[in-house]
Amino acid sequence: MQSKDKKLVVIGGGAAGFFCAVNAARLGLCVTILEKTGKLLSKVKVSGGGRCNVTHACYDIGEMMKKYPRGGQFVRKAFHQFFTTDTIQWFADRGVALKTEDDGRMFPVSNSSQTIIDTLVKEADRYGVEVRMHAEVTGVERIDQGFRVHLTGDRVLEADAVCIACGGFPKSVSFEWIRKLGHTIEEPVPSLFTFNMPGNGITRLMGVSVPEARVRVAGSKLQEEGPLLITHWGMSGPAVLRLSAWGARELAAREYTFKVMVNWTGDLSEQVVRERMQQVRYEWAGGKVGGKNPFGLPARLWEYALEICGVSSDLRWADLPAKETNKLVNFLCLGEFAVSGKTTFKEEFVTAGGVRLSEVEASTMQSRKVGGLFFAGEILDVDGVTGGFNFQHAWTSGWIAANAAVEMLT
Length: 410
Known about the structure:
single chain, alpha+beta, Helicase, Ruva Protein, domain 3, 2 domains, five-stranded parallel beta sheet, elongated
């Protein structure tokens, strides 16, 4: 191990920043984390409903890269150095076992994000990482022997190398200090947001979850399948969140005003749904339409469909007229809902945009414009869909930046 005479300053006390810091310190650098708020690892804390979705059980780089609406090729190169298996092993080596859920998301066996936080903080303590809270960076200046980092209150810190890992910024102006270093910023727009449907009757069904629905943005190629959750403000769930990620720039351009078409039956075609409706008219002829539905939909959603289509729940299946059958088929396969606005949750959700990837070397996370300057995590123009992919990018980029900084300085 090298003597700690070379200093790395990591800007940002989130997942990527901490992972960079602890790995660099373990390999012999003197490391300081600068965190502008009074909280460390805040996204880790709230991720996965407080359980921390550490990564995703995907072990094929080609498949994994498809989960990143922006930065797929960049992470493909990076994942060859530190991938899912490495994340699992890193935490296992520190006594944290991960478990895989049915949808592929991986969580600590403890089901608590605090386990991940405690592990990272313990590692920082073990290797002497200095953590400064309420330390907001206002500028980074390249000097002959490294860097001068300027903070609020006229404080100045000198370093041999700097890693910027402060997460994404919702407003372009917040990147100005990075632009002054010569970097180009891809304009930030929200990603992973839910759809607001003010005044729409569907919101009466808040809390209803459909395990497999297909959601398509009208007038575009944007389409996703998966669980859909109806909320008091509109629609959420993995299908909607993934759709918002892939459509982040297009939906921003539409000012979050558009229509979505929902197939509540998942991947069943209109023809298949129609045939099934005709079939149950005979099979369940004497039964009431409101009694049960042939598609396994939640009871409240089926009742709502009947109401919207003007069908009495007391009607016998045998008496269901063709006109009302058509309405039901249309609602089930092509339900149209107007979206007006979005809801994002500041700490858990992500921003598309950030430092242009062509200006960063994926194998080292080092700036191609400023030697000794590294980037990790969401500050880069990389974002994944929901499911642990953003954390995997954080671990990967943090690890690579740490190792590259060590190699450069020692």
